[in-house]
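Lab notebook, design round three. We kept the backbone fixed and only want residue identities now. Task for the bench partner: fill in a sequence for the structure below.
Input structure tokens:
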């Protein structure tokens, strides 16, 4: 049997004024290797996803407070092949407004949180890796709400970035330092 569903609530009310922390430790900097509307895999339901070019084993931190609702860390391999599309180590966090944050491509057994755990901004979620549908190690990050049991709607979000007075929409190809 094969089945699929979309985690989340269809009545989530995303706050467009919400400002996110970069999903890594203060002082660290990483490049956006694929941004919003990216041509490799950021289209359709993943249109507003971001890929941070993190080497394997980099710390992944919560970008916004919420409750861990899903953890998968059983996969050990990844490649840009369809076979790996649903074989990705993932953490999903439900925010207080009902939206979900999806963090993907953790290394095998590299997740440090448990389902049901409440996390604050900057809480260590685990360590980046190269699992699932990926050309190399990185962190895939998306904020979304469920549309129905099979589809989701992503949202453009802004981040606090070192050296900037106002939150930014992150751009592909640029490097961003966590304040």
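Proposed sequence:
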């Amino acid at each position: 049997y094969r089945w699929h569903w979309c985690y989340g609530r269809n009545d989530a009310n995303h706050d467009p004024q919400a400002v996110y922390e970069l999903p890594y430790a203060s002082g660290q900097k990483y490049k956006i290797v694929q941004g919003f509307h990216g041509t490799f895999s950021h289209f359709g339901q993943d249109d507003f996803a971001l890929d941070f070019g993190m080497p394997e084993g980099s710390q992944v931190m919560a970008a916004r407070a919420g409750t861990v609702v899903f953890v998968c860390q059983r996969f050990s391999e990844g490649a840009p092949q369809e076979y790996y599309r649903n074989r990705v180590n993932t953490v999903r966090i439900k925010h207080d407004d009902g939206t979900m944050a999806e963090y993907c491509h953790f290394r095998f057994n590299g997740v440090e949180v448990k389902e049901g755990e409440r996390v604050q901004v900057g809480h260590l979620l685990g360590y980046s890796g190269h699992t699932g549908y990926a050309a190399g190690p990185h962190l895939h990050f998306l904020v979304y709400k469920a549309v129905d049991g099979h589809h989701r709607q992503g949202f453009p979000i802004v981040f606090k970035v070192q050296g900037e007075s106002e939150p930014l929409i992150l751009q592909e190809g640029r490097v961003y330092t966590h304040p």
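Keep this in mind before ordering anything: The longest strand covers residues 139-146.
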